[in-house]
Amino acid sequence: MENLIILGTGPAGLTAALYAARANLEPLVYEGNEPGGQLTTTTDVENYPGFESGVMGPDLVDIMRKQAQRFGTRCEYGKVVESDLSGEVKKLTLENGEVKACTSLIIATGASAKYLGLESEQKLLSVGGGVSACAVCDGAFYKDMAVCVIGGGDTAMEEAIFLTKYASRVYIIHRREEFRASKIMADRALKNDKIEPVWNSVIEEVMDVDKGVVTGIRVKNVQTDETRDIAVEGYFSAIGHKPNTDPFKGQLDMDTVGYLVANHTKTNIPGVFAAGDVQDSVYRQAVTAAGSGCMAALEAEKYLESLHD
Ligand code: NDP
User: Fold this and answer.
1) What is the pLDDT of residue 289?
2) Which of 129, 134, 156, 237 would staple 213 via disulfide (CB 3.0–4.6 Å)?
3) The pLDDT value given to residue 42
4) Number of CB atoms found within 10 A of residue 89's CB
5) Which residues line ligand 1 (CB under 6 A)?
């Protein structure tokens, strides 16, 4: 039986681990399919305090992990697929069927990129055929090729602008005729010669499933119902994020999108805390995630102490 289990190794989970380890709580941290979280898919992080000249996202996570381990944090691979948080002992079922029990739990599982969910998109995603949600990770594969970005928010603008470093043409496919993105980001994208917005359009199909690689997209104009094919070799989804809360559905309070509802990191179940993007759809910054990780660890410490009163 563990004192404290922390789920997630992004800035929230690792900061919680650092504080908990220094408080002698001997935390066990599980990292899932995206070790390090979203920071590992970025390059330069210039807005994390303490790094005057910036720091690479993966390096920042690496430093945080080592710092937490220095005080006795244990990091293991383990994806939680089910949970039973109803009793005083919280039970977590891992993907391999193993059940882990703990007295307190910090959920810092973050949020993952969303996809449209089209059959063709999912098939090409599963074979690594040119469907991605991370320009920083995959952009360099598309030197002098045409690519598309789906979405109209800040992420879509950022991805599109980044992709112009490599691609010859970047189509932004957006379902309306106005971007949701901040004006500064939208203007920057629209001023870029390589970027071409495709307004009022939705993707009907990603081609070519039979070939196992992206060769183009079929888009439909939602105002005229006309369809047309655009040749692209890369497809980047940028339609927002989904919080990773599925294993806790029906037990923890969530908003309509699935973000955990937490008050000073405390969820509706005593002893269960939430930190980072899994409970924050507003700020979504490494530094705010780290801050809430610290808060969650302090709350967990208080909770564990209260059990001995
Ligand atoms: P957003 O929710 O802001 O935008 C998602 C975009 O995807 C919208 O344009 C939306 O269209 C479109 N979309 C959603 N679902 C579908 C669908 N099923 N089919 C077609 N299009 C769809 O998400 P972001 O990830 O862009 O941003 C999230 C937050 O993070 C925002 O607050 C943003 O400002 C912030 N952020 C800030 C950055 C920065 O400042 N550098 C960088 C990245 C993000 P519609 O507009 O019609 O709803």
Assistant:
1) 96
2) 129
3) 66
4) 13
5) 116, 151-156, 158, 175-176, 180, 239-241, 284
Mean pLDDT in residue range 224-253: 97
Rg (CA), the chain: 21
Domains in the chain, CATH or no CATH each: 2-112+241-306 (3.50.50.60), 115-237 (3.50.50.60)
Atom of ligand 1 nearest to the CA of 282: 32
Tokens describing residue 86: 């109803």
pLDDT tops 90 at residue 115: yes
Phi/psi of residue 189, nearest 5 degrees? -70, -45
Position 217 pLDDT exceeds 90: yes
Q: What's the pLDDT score for residue 134?
A: 86
Catalytic residues: 134, 137-138
Output the pTM of the full model: 0.79
Identify whether 144 is preceded by a cis peptide bond (ω within 30 of 0): no
**φ, ψ of residue 216 in degrees (nearest 5):** 175, 175
Show the tokens assigned to 31.
């990292």
Task: Report the nearest-CA residue for atom 46 of ligand 1.
Answer: 180
The residue type of 260 is L
Q: Probe ligand 1: pick from 48, 134, 175, 241, max atoms within 8 Å of CB?
A: 175
